[in-house]
Design a protein that fits this description.
The chain is of the alpha+beta class. The chain has helices at residues 3-23, 76-95, 102-123; strands at residues 28-31, 37-39, 43-50, 55-61, 66-69. The protein is globular.
Protein backbone atom coordinates (compact mmCIF):
# COMPACT_ATOMS: atom_id res chain seq x y z
CA UNK A 1 0.00 0.00 0.00
CA UNK A 2 1.12 3.52 -0.63
CA UNK A 3 1.23 5.91 2.30
CA UNK A 4 -1.98 7.55 1.03
CA UNK A 5 -3.77 4.18 0.66
CA UNK A 6 -2.60 3.15 4.12
CA UNK A 7 -3.80 6.38 5.64
CA UNK A 8 -7.18 6.06 3.92
CA UNK A 9 -7.54 2.42 5.01
CA UNK A 10 -6.81 3.23 8.66
CA UNK A 11 -9.23 6.19 8.62
CA UNK A 12 -11.95 4.04 7.02
CA UNK A 13 -11.47 1.29 9.61
CA UNK A 14 -11.64 3.80 12.45
CA UNK A 15 -14.85 5.28 11.04
CA UNK A 16 -16.43 1.82 10.72
CA UNK A 17 -15.51 0.94 14.31
CA UNK A 18 -16.71 4.33 15.60
CA UNK A 19 -20.06 3.80 13.85
CA UNK A 20 -20.31 0.24 15.22
CA UNK A 21 -19.60 1.50 18.75
CA UNK A 22 -22.14 4.32 18.39
CA UNK A 23 -24.75 1.74 17.39
CA UNK A 24 -23.90 -0.08 20.63
CA UNK A 25 -24.30 3.15 22.62
CA UNK A 26 -20.58 3.84 23.02
CA UNK A 27 -19.52 7.30 21.89
CA UNK A 28 -15.75 7.69 21.57
CA UNK A 29 -14.14 10.56 23.47
CA UNK A 30 -10.55 9.61 22.63
CA UNK A 31 -8.37 6.82 21.26
CA UNK A 32 -5.44 5.54 23.29
CA UNK A 33 -3.12 5.33 20.29
CA UNK A 34 -0.11 3.95 22.18
CA UNK A 35 -2.17 0.88 23.12
CA UNK A 36 -4.02 0.53 19.81
CA UNK A 37 -2.63 -1.52 16.91
CA UNK A 38 -3.03 -1.50 13.14
CA UNK A 39 -2.14 -4.64 11.18
CA UNK A 40 -3.05 -3.48 7.70
CA UNK A 41 -4.76 -4.55 5.61
CA UNK A 42 -6.18 -7.12 8.02
CA UNK A 43 -7.36 -5.51 11.21
CA UNK A 44 -7.32 -2.65 13.65
CA UNK A 45 -7.49 -2.91 17.42
CA UNK A 46 -8.47 0.34 19.09
CA UNK A 47 -8.40 1.05 22.78
CA UNK A 48 -10.89 3.84 23.27
CA UNK A 49 -12.20 5.98 26.06
CA UNK A 50 -15.91 6.72 25.84
CA UNK A 51 -17.52 10.00 26.79
CA UNK A 52 -18.77 8.33 30.00
CA UNK A 53 -15.14 7.62 31.01
CA UNK A 54 -15.29 3.87 30.43
CA UNK A 55 -12.59 2.23 28.30
CA UNK A 56 -13.12 -0.40 25.63
CA UNK A 57 -11.27 -2.52 23.12
CA UNK A 58 -12.78 -2.40 19.65
CA UNK A 59 -11.73 -4.50 16.68
CA UNK A 60 -12.38 -3.90 13.00
CA UNK A 61 -11.01 -4.65 9.57
CA UNK A 62 -11.53 -7.68 7.37
CA UNK A 63 -13.57 -9.34 10.10
CA UNK A 64 -16.67 -8.69 12.16
CA UNK A 65 -16.46 -5.52 14.26
CA UNK A 66 -16.67 -6.22 17.96
CA UNK A 67 -16.23 -4.50 21.30
CA UNK A 68 -15.25 -5.56 24.81
CA UNK A 69 -14.62 -3.75 28.09
CA UNK A 70 -10.96 -2.77 28.49
CA UNK A 71 -10.80 -5.01 31.56
CA UNK A 72 -10.85 -8.21 29.43
CA UNK A 73 -7.25 -7.78 28.26
CA UNK A 74 -4.09 -5.97 29.20
CA UNK A 75 -2.99 -5.19 25.65
CA UNK A 76 -3.94 -5.48 21.98
CA UNK A 77 -2.28 -8.88 21.60
CA UNK A 78 -4.23 -10.33 24.52
CA UNK A 79 -7.50 -8.84 23.30
CA UNK A 80 -7.07 -10.67 19.99
CA UNK A 81 -7.02 -13.92 21.95
CA UNK A 82 -10.10 -12.77 23.85
CA UNK A 83 -12.03 -12.05 20.64
CA UNK A 84 -10.81 -15.33 19.13
CA UNK A 85 -12.22 -17.35 22.03
CA UNK A 86 -15.38 -15.24 22.15
CA UNK A 87 -16.03 -15.80 18.44
CA UNK A 88 -15.38 -19.54 18.68
CA UNK A 89 -17.91 -19.81 21.50
CA UNK A 90 -20.40 -17.65 19.60
CA UNK A 91 -19.95 -19.80 16.49
CA UNK A 92 -20.50 -22.94 18.57
CA UNK A 93 -23.72 -21.52 20.04
CA UNK A 94 -24.99 -20.37 16.65
CA UNK A 95 -24.22 -23.73 15.06
CA UNK A 96 -26.41 -25.42 17.67
CA UNK A 97 -29.44 -23.34 16.74
CA UNK A 98 -32.39 -25.22 15.33
CA UNK A 99 -32.73 -24.97 11.56
CA UNK A 100 -30.07 -22.32 10.92
CA UNK A 101 -30.51 -20.56 7.59
CA UNK A 102 -27.70 -20.09 5.07
CA UNK A 103 -26.87 -16.61 6.39
CA UNK A 104 -26.39 -18.02 9.89
CA UNK A 105 -24.24 -20.88 8.60
CA UNK A 106 -22.15 -18.42 6.58
CA UNK A 107 -21.70 -16.20 9.65
CA UNK A 108 -20.61 -19.21 11.74
CA UNK A 109 -17.97 -20.01 9.11
CA UNK A 110 -16.77 -16.39 9.07
CA UNK A 111 -16.54 -16.32 12.86
CA UNK A 112 -14.53 -19.56 12.94
CA UNK A 113 -12.21 -18.46 10.15
CA UNK A 114 -11.56 -15.02 11.63
CA UNK A 115 -11.19 -16.42 15.16
CA UNK A 116 -8.48 -18.78 13.94
CA UNK A 117 -6.83 -16.00 11.94
CA UNK A 118 -6.64 -13.49 14.77
CA UNK A 119 -5.39 -16.15 17.18
CA UNK A 120 -2.59 -16.95 14.73
CA UNK A 121 -1.74 -13.24 14.52
CA UNK A 122 -1.68 -12.98 18.32
CA UNK A 123 0.75 -15.91 18.45
CA UNK A 124 3.22 -14.25 16.04
CA UNK A 125 5.85 -12.71 18.32
CA UNK A 126 7.39 -10.74 15.45
CA UNK A 127 4.24 -8.60 15.20
CA UNK A 128 4.29 -7.65 18.87
CA UNK A 129 7.90 -6.80 19.60
CA UNK A 130 8.39 -3.24 20.75
CA UNK A 131 9.83 -1.14 17.96
Amino acid sequence: MTEQQSSTWVRDQYQKVAKFLAEKGVIIDSVLLEQSRVLEPLLTVWKVKAIDGKQYWAIGGDLPSDVAPASVAEDARAVLKHFSLHWQLKAENLSRAENPDQTQRDFVNILISRAEGIYDLAERSDLWQAG
